């Protein structure tokens, strides 16, 4: 993160000001559905949403449009969550850990009975692809809003799904079609397939339980971590191994099928921008596909859906190489996180479609009715530190939160509000920020503007990374793959690198803000509100910079004009600033040069937790000798396990944690001599 020290005594500052008040603008929210919500089409009186956060809120919104009452379930720490407030009823299903609440099948079944819900929408994650949950609901006469148990079983097991895909004439990746028994068998199979290989959980998805291996040692380690993550996330530690397609694109097809044998493909979503096999930025359509490839992928996706008699919304994921050869990856038998961008370009409300299908209605559309209208882009906004492995989880309370819904063609799917807590127990997603345009260029420009106008305080977030991605020349040109982030940032994300001109603009704006604030505090009687109109000319290194704007100094957002160009500025006095600057008097600036510099900590001898989480395992004890790169402990955060290794060969001096401990970011774990 860049840091600059700025002195108040610039050679020349000219200013003029007035006092005015800013006017509020009403928001325009896009993605209006072409779907007609027919009040005479009977579906369900009451639906329970077996999920939390933004997806629970998303389902509730459609239920309200359809006149359906809703039931929220929540853990004890989520009792004041947004989805709980939005629902007509709410039931607590246990304490914070997911295994005791949102994965607590008995508690959720009791909530269904207690409230008399006729159907359950599972959202994504948690129990959404759990066939036992669907079976138990069916046994109680409650409708599961999703596919039947056969399809969940067939597609949820990656080994079985691959065999079914082959039989349905769907292109598949070469690999081992059985269950891998242990680490040594994994090494043997990997050698037969040929490195690199992908080790992944047979059940589940979302990037959990997946490791890429380039040699025998990585295969052993990958088998251990993948099986542990799979057991933790899905209750199933079975693994499979297949050839890793190097440098591919990740493109998926949205399908929709009813109980009458009708099935459609709703075009594709480009999901190649990923970190740790989890998507970060998605768009629809893809810049890469031509009409023939799109149709071929869509037809194979529908063929697979029909092969398992699929009925609901589902997603068939493919890897696509540089020659547009595509290979089946997996099928997600649920609503996908990134479904909003498909809704934007097709006009279909996918939750509405899922509810209709679950009730037994036929699809209202034919394949020829499915359009590609415009372009949509989704950025996943996470409470993560993007400067650590492209995003390690951050926790805290949202002290200030303002979504950019004042902008046209912007949609924000979120389940939080100002004051909400981001905890270690759940996924760190804050929201899904979606922008739409007639063209990709329009959608990208709108995304840039939306990110600049998104105010998040209290937690570290990944907006700096998202903004750099969407303006990067490679992304803008469509030259992307799943390796985009490590290729563009081989040494990790370091933030925006300022040009000389940008540096001058930043310093000039900082000086102007400082002077404006001083004027306001010294002449408070002249200002009847927080807003002032200001015009400054700041001279830096012989260059003049004109800074002007109508500023509300109490606002988190400051629209300004720098040398005739419009900019949006956010000022944060806490630790979450993108660029950190100090304005000093000449005397303070002179004296600061003589202040002793803080000696950085010797990180080679001290291992600290890079994120909040829980200690899964500690592999050393005081007196042990460890080699550089040797695993010392494992930290789990948001169901992802991270191996902490020794930075040098040394003897262990002390151990400050044990398995089961909860640790915060920066907590001391182990000291080496």
From TrEMBL:
Its main location: mitochondrion. Pathway: Metabolic intermediate metabolism; propanoyl-CoA degradation; succinyl-CoA from propanoyl-CoA: step 1/3. It catalyses: butanoyl-CoA + hydrogencarbonate + ATP = (2S)-ethylmalonyl-CoA + ADP + phosphate + H(+); propanoyl-CoA + hydrogencarbonate + ATP = (S)-methylmalonyl-CoA + ADP + phosphate + H(+). One of its GO terms (biological process) is lipid catabolic process. Its EC number is 6.4.1.3. One of its GO terms (cellular component) is mitochondrial matrix. Its cofactor is biotin. Gene3D superfamilies: 2.40.50.100, 3.30.700.30, 3.40.50.20, ATP-grasp fold, A domain (3.30.1490.20), ATP-grasp fold, B domain (3.30.470.20). Keywords: Acetylation, ATP-binding, Biotin, Ligase, Lipid degradation, Lipid metabolism, Magnesium, Manganese, Metal-binding, Mitochondrion, Nucleotide-binding, Phosphoprotein, Transit peptide. Coiled coil: none annotated. Signal peptide: none annotated. Pfam families: Biotin_carb_C, Biotin_carb_N, Biotin_lipoyl, CPSase_L_D2, PCC_BT. It is found in: Mitochondrion matrix. One of its GO terms (molecular function) is metal ion binding. Residues 162-359 form the ATP-grasp domain. PROSITE patterns: ATP_GRASP, BC, BIOTIN, BIOTINYL_LIPOYL, CPSASE_1, CPSASE_2. Residues 43-490 form the Biotin carboxylation domain. Residues 594-673 form the Lipoyl-binding domain. The holoenzyme is a dodecamer composed of 6 PCCA/alpha subunits and 6 PCCB/beta subunits. Interacts (via the biotin carboxylation domain) with SIRT4. Interacts with SIRT3 and SIRT5. NCBIfam families: PRK08591.1 (NF006367). This is Propionyl-CoA carboxylase alpha chain, mitochondrial. It comes from Cyprinus carpio.
């Amino acid at each position: 993160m860049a840091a600059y020290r700025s002195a108040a005594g610039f050679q020349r500052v000219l200013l003029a000001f007035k006092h005015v008040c800013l006017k509020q603008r009403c928001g325009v929210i896009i993605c209006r559905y072409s779907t007609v919500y027919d009040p005479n089409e009977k579906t369900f009186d009451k639906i329970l949403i077996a999920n939390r956060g933004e997806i629970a809120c998303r389902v509730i919104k459609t239920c309200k449009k359809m006149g359906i009452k809703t039931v929220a379930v929540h853990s004890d720490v989520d009792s004041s969550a947004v989805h709980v407030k939005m629902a007509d009823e709410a039931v607590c299903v246990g304490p914070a850990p997911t295994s005791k609440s949102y994965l607590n099948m008995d508690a959720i079944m009791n909530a269904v009975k207690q409230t008399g819900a006729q159907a359950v929408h599972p959202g994504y994650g948690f129990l959404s692809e759990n066939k036992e949950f669907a079976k138990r609901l069916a046994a109680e006469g409650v409708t599961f809003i999703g596919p039947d148990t056969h399809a969940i079983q067939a597609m949820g097991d990656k080994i079985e799904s691959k065999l079914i895909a082959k039989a349905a004439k769907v292109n598949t990746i070469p690999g081992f079609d059985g269950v891998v028994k242990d680490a040594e068998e994994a090494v043997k199979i990997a050698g037969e397939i040929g490195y690199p290989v992908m080790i992944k959980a047979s059940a589940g998805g979302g990037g959990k339980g997946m490791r890429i291996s380039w040699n025998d040692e990585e295969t052993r380690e990958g088998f251990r971590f993948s099986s542990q993550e799979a057991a933790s996330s899905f209750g199933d530690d079975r693994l499979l191994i297949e050839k890793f397609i190097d440098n591919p694109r990740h493109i998926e097809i949205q399908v929709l099928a009813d109980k009458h044998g009708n099935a459609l493909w709703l075009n594709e979503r480009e999901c190649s921008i990923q970190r740790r096999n989890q998507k970060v930025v998605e768009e629809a359509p893809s810049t890469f596909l031509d009409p023939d490839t799109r149709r071929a992928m869509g037809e194979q996706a529908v063929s697979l859906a029909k092969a398992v008699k699929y009925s609901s919304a589902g997603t068939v994921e493919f890897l696509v190489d540089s020659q547009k050869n595509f290979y089946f990856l997996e099928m997600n038998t649920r609503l996908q996180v990134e479904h909003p961008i498909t809704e934007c370009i097709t006009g279909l409300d996918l939750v509405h479609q899922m509810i209709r299908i679950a009730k037994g209605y036929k699809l209202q559309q034919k394949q020829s009715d499915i359009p590609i209208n415009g372009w949509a882009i989704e950025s996943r906004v996470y409470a993560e530190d993007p400067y650590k492995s492209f995003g390690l989880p951050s926790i805290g309370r949202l002290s200030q939160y303002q979504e950019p819904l004042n902008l046209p063609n912007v949609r924000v799917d979120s389940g939080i509000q100002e004051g909400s807590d981001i905890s270690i127990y759940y996924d760190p997603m804050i929201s899904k920020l979606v922008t739409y345009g007639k063209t990709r260029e329009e959608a990208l420009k709108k995304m840039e503007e939306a990110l600049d106008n998104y105010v998040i305080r209290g937690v570290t977030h990944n907006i700096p990374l998202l903004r750099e991605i969407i303006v990067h020349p490679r992304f803008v040109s469509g030259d992307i793959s799943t390796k985009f982030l490590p290729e563009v940032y081989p040494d990790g994300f370091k933030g925006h690198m300022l040009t000389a001109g940008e540096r001058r603009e930043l310093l000039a704006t900082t000086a102007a803000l400082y002077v404006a604030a001083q004027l306001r505090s010294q002449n408070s009687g002249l200002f009847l509100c927080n807003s002032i109109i200001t015009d400054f000319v700041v001279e830096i290194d012989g260059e003049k910079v004109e800074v002007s704007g109508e500023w509300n100094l109490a606002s988190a957002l400051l629209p300004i004009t720098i040398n005739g160009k419009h900019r949006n500025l956010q000022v944060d006095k806490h630790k979450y600033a993108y660029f950190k600057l100090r304005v000093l008097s000449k005397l303070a600036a002179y004296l600061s040069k003589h202040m002793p510099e803080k000696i950085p900590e010797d990180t080679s001898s001290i291992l600290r937790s890079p994120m909040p989480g829980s200690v899964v395992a500690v592999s050393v004890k005081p007196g042990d000798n460890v080699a550089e790169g040797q695993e010392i402990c494992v930290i789990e955060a948001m169901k992802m396990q991270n191996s902490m290794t020794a930075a040098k060969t040394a003897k262990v001096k002390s151990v400050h944690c044990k398995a089961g401990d909860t640790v915060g970011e920066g907590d001391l774990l182990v000291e080496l001599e």
